[in-house]
Each structure stands twice: as C-alpha cells, then as structure tokens.
Design brief:
This protein has 155 residues and is of the alpha+beta class. It is built from three helices and seven strands, in the order E-H-H-E-E-E-E-E-E-H.
Length: 155
C-alpha cells in the first residue's frame, strides 16, 4: 500500500469561508506556512489548471536544511480540482536537486459541514520519500491550526 499522510481539524467557520481561504493568495500566504516558516507566493493563477509558486523560508534553518536551498523550499502547486465549499485538489512539485524530493505530490483538502463549522481533512499521496511522514503530518497539523486561527472569531 502506498503512503498516505493525513491531517484533520474542525474549524469554526462555514465550508464556503474555508474554501475561500484555500483559493485566495493573501490568505494562503498568511496561514499555509507551518510553524517555523514564512511563505511568499511568486506566481498566482487561481483556476483549475492554474496554480501558484510558493517560496517557504525557514525562520531558523539550523538543523532544517531546505529542499531548494539551505533556508528555503520552493514548491510549484497546481490546482487540479476546485469544487467550491467541498474540495480543493492540488499537485505539488518541489524545486530540488536531491532526487529524494522528486515527483508530484497530490494534496486533497476535503471540507464537510460539521455543526456550526467545517471538518477539514487533508490527505497527501505521492509524497517524495525524502519527506519524513511524521514531520509532514506535523506540518499539516500546524497549517490546519494556522487556518483555524486565520478564520475563527478572535483568531
């Protein structure tokens, strides 16, 4: 069975609001980078078949060698599927010389109404073998926590 990295969180926001945060440039720059990183989007084309390039910079690169350079991960993300208020499917390719980070990872963000909020479930398939599963799942959880803080009242 192939590897699947996962994360989920219930966010106190409507599915439409969560979806909007998944497909708007400023929102993604604000909440997507996991703890210890900041992100900047260089290219932006928010439509199926479009995508974006994000430069993630480690706030402290000590002990966290980047995939693209010592302090950065550059990832080209494509929007494979956009279903408003239900699902976003992204393809991600890291810019790296190391073949352990080669290949196309697919990230599927599923949104399901859950009471007054949204259950957000993330699954990642085709994860390059150079990305440690536990570290990746910790990063997914961190991004989901940032998404909650971005969207929830008082966040």
């Amino acid at each position: 069975m192939s590897r699947v990295d996962r994360g989920s969180r219930t966010i106190a926001a409507a599915p439409a609001a969560v979806y909007d945060a998944l497909v708007h440039r400023a929102a993604l720059e604000a909440w997507l980078p996991p703890d210890g990183m900041r992100g900047r989007i260089e290219r932006w084309d928010p439509r199926p078949g479009g995508g974006f390039r994000m430069v993630l910079t480690y706030l402290d690169a000590t002990g966290n060698p980047g995939k693209t350079s010592d302090a950065t991960d550059v990832v080209d993300v494509g929007f494979a599927e956009l279903v408003p208020a239900h699902r976003v499917v992204q393809t991600a390719v890291f810019q790296a010389d190391d073949p352990a980070y080669a290949g196309t990872m697919t990230m599927t963000w599923r949104l399901a109404a859950a009471g007054d909020g949204t259950e957000v479930t993330v699954t990642a398939t085709g994860v390059p073998p150079g990305i440690d599963q536990a570290v990746h799942e910790e990063g997914i959880a961190s991004s989901l926590a940032h998404l909650a803080a971005y969207l929830e009242p008082g966040g």
